[in-house]
Amino acid sequence: MTTTTTPAPAVRSRLRPGTGRALVSSLVLVLAMLTALGAFSELVTTAGSWRLHVLLALVATAAVVAGTRAVTTSAWLPSLTGLVLAGYAVLVGYGGGALPLIPDGGSPGRLWALSQEGIRAIQDGVVPLDVGRPVELLILAAVLLLFLAADLLAIGCRMPALSGLALATLWVPAAALGFPGSTWALVGTGALYLLLILLGRDTPVALGRPGRIRPATTGLVATAAVVALAVAGVPALTALPIWSWSGPPVEGTGAMGAVRLADDLDLRDSLGRQSEQVVLRYQVSAVGQSDDDAPRATAGLAGPLRSFTLRDFDGRSWSREPEGDLTSWDRDTLLASDPALIGATPDPTRGTLIRLDLVVGALREERLPVTVFPRTVGIGDPWVYDAARDEVVGGRTDISQTYDMVVEVPDLTADLLRSATGDLPEEVQPYLTVPETEHEDELRDLAEELTADADTAFDRALALQTWFRDTSRFRYDTTVAESESDDAVWDFLQSRRGYCVQYATSMTMLARMLGIPARLGVGFLPGSLASDGDYQVTGSDAHAWPELYFPGIGWVRFEPTPAVQTGAPPSWSNPSTAATPAATAAPSAAQPSAAASASASAAATAGPDTGQARDEQEGTPGLGLGLIVALGLIIAAGVAAGLVLGRRSAPPLTPERAWTRLRTGLRRYRVSWSDAHTPRQAADQIRAQVDRARGRPLGSDADRALTALVAALEAERYTAAPVPVAEDVLRGWVDAVLADVRGTRSGSRRRATRAAAGDGPGPGDRT
């Protein structure tokens, strides 16, 4: 019996065309999101299972989205499905009810409460932050939302360049808080992002109806949108309250919300990364000024804002002495370090009156920042006044808290301070104490040597300040050298490297050895003027300075820290306005060589920028560097996407483009010139730099090629109808110069040489 087999009908695949590429794109996007989590490498700890939970949730969400996309032509349905299922999973996982996998009526409330707990943990935590369940919820939810947004843009809408916005958002916290993440993570994220753009060139995903969007149009639109949104959107994100009021603290390694000033300063500790978060914002206005010659009401005139002072130093670190008597005060009368002014009314005859209206940001202090000058302080209870230390204490600053001061800026002058004489009050005697260390005698000898030509206490103080601010002797450095003795001041004077705590402490101790009562003031520099006209003070403005006591005047601030960090010294101690005896050479034992740094220029303290000049390299490279890198990555990749998707052929080679190609090639050999140079001047620069670098001039053939290229470039730039030059001739001229600089005679160089010598068309030949 013969049997026949009838072929079964072919089963038509239910998968959409292009599913394979879409799956690969989804995988690349998942890897990019995981790599971008490296932005949190310094913000949070790696302990715990939070990374595994984020990985599993991300992979599961990606699988749901990719699976839905494989069987539908809708651009939006896969993302919507992923959003619904991811939201359900988060609700069950973090706000679950009595039954597994089934939420109840209280689940949304529990989820909301957990998220609020996570926000509070971020605001009050310390870097690196321990990732508990509340913080894990916030990270996981953010990653899933950003993945869904990036997936929709890159695959659903065929605009992969715009997906970079979602990837960059993960870097915003690190950039805004001043804690840059892993460099390798940034590079890896960028590489995967570019691969995603490459994969997205021909992804056949419909936008609801058949048709094809022109690649060039997509590229140009994506590039323009990325640039516009990156410039406008990312800075706006950093302005949100969750970022602008949360950041690393000044104390310890840094807090993500609360910024506090350390009062147990150790001279042997290097300066950690300082917060760039705004701790105070304030406005300055004049009070009753009718004299046009009166100083302008600026933050520089008000000076730094001091939170507290320190008296006790053990040779290594400072500690707080017991609090004095705490009293309430009339908010309309003065608080001052001079007992005679406490309770007085601000008087314009004693100085310039200005008003400060302040708003607290990330600062969480039990000691209120106030000016070093006499001032009224308008703030509610429970704040009280410690007259012995001139501190307003007892409360705790909180976000958006406001207070005001009317400051009486005295007319302090060098002559007034020189004339300050008399007996020291009993209460300042403890401020003459110096620790007993193995180098105490050497330090006393040094202090005497430095001030040998000074006749008054003020001139001795001025000589010390001038010596410390000399950048040929000292270098501002946030890294402290290893200790070599039990005397941190002596160790600092050996290394000559340190930051404000070392400078201020050293001057304080040397002043005490000279019989001048001295203490350490701790607070903030005046800050900088923001675009809205307010002054803003950040954690990186935290500062320490010495305050010296003069009979009949009170405590007076000096500034020994170099100008790169503090700007000019106070007007009364500025050597440009106060004559001072030159500091004599220090004993050789205390003068090891130190690398000199560039000295910043000093301006009058009363100027509008006083106290605000800061070394651009000081502080954290975070916000500026991290944000620029992230935005640069997005913009560069967006431009690359436009070029790739545009599929445009290379533009024709013109003399201008050939000149640019030559300039780019010569940079590899450290031959460059300024844009201000004309082509002929640039050619002279090329010849001179090549001659200087290798000891012989540019070869004759290469020189003729350079001359010919310059002539063609000048013709293109400066004549109405330049004669076109063939591309191979232009290319030959460029190759001839580069080959000669490189020192080889390749075949291309020989061909270029013949072209330059006349065997090929020249600048005057038509093609």
Automatic annotation (TrEMBL):
The chain crosses the membrane at residues 22-40, 52-71, 83-102, 137-154, 161-178, 184-200, 220-243, 623-645. Keywords: Membrane, Transmembrane, Transmembrane helix. InterPro entries: Bact_TGase-like, Papain-like_cys_pep_sf, TgpA_N, Transglutaminase-like. Residues 564-618, 744-767 are annotated as: Disordered. PANTHER family: PROTEIN-GLUTAMINE GAMMA-GLUTAMYLTRANSFERASE. Residues 492-562 form the Transglutaminase-like domain. This is Transglutaminase domain-containing protein. It comes from the Bacteria. The keyword Membrane applies. The lineage of its organism: Bacteria, Bacillati, Actinomycetota, Actinomycetes, Micrococcales.
